[in-house]
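Final report, closing paragraph on structural work. Over the funding period we assembled a curated collection of sequence-structure pairs, and we close with a single example.
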Amino acid sequence: MGVMIGFQRRRALSGILTVPLVFTLFGAESAMKRVTLPDVKPVEFKPYAQLEIPANREPSGIVKSRLWPDVYWAHNDSGDGPRIFAMHRDGRMYPSERDGAAHGVRIPDAVNVDWEDIATDDQGRLIIGDFGNSESNTRRDLCLYFIEEPHPSAGYTSVSKKVFFRYPDQTEVPSPVRNFDSEALFYAHGHAYILTKHRSDTGTTLYRLDSEEPGRVHVLTRLESFDTRDQVTGADVSADGKRLAVLTYTGIWVFDAREKEKWFDGAIRWLPTEDDEAEAITIDGDRLIIAADEGDGDLYDVPIASLRVVRE
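Its predicted structure, as stored:
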């Protein structure tokens, strides 16, 4: 099994490429950054734990808390309501002060249209990416929810800010270029960043949210693209903003930036994997915690040092 199988399988299911789409892709691919990857066998990881019910229903995002020790926040995809789960590293959930562990922390003034990732910032906030955008990229309500990070035993919390956005290079809704879905979010250098999930090529594009002003639709700033060889399903960044971890259906990437925002220009580690249902990743010191397998919520612990250096 090679690193391209996941993309080829999903690309075949997404339909026939149109001529306008092909022309658009030629221009996009010419600016896409790449590295040469060795031909190595994908690694099969064994789970060390599982998320408790109901956080395992369709795990889509996970992030390590910067406020509370041994607290990791997780959430389900659109099949669940607007709630997040505080859990220990071994997947056991902190019980809600009102309704026990199965309740989670509910956010009544939010809507889980298609939650895909969660991040934490240096201001004590959690950020939830409600930006799942299907294959046809038809949504016009893509947004980020900002909430003050609650105590792990809180039963309820509320949204402090809801910020809508759109992509600067999406000129049609629905879009013939199917590169405006996303499942990856992180916060660094005072801004939220989004990595897209492409269905028209094997890369991802990095965007930055420059303002959090509510009440209007913000146009993201497009930064650069990188060939991840498959669709991106999750991301996280170190607290200092220098190390970026990116998850795809068939691999793990770790980028170490030498300059601010230049993650794709620094040292790169990579590891091909066999689990094509992994959709959530967080950095935990010198290790990565990955959540996968809808219905099981398997947790994997991956040392960053185990990834292969593909660029110094």
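The chain has one domain: 5-311. The chain has a mean pLDDT of 89. We thank the funder for supporting this effort.
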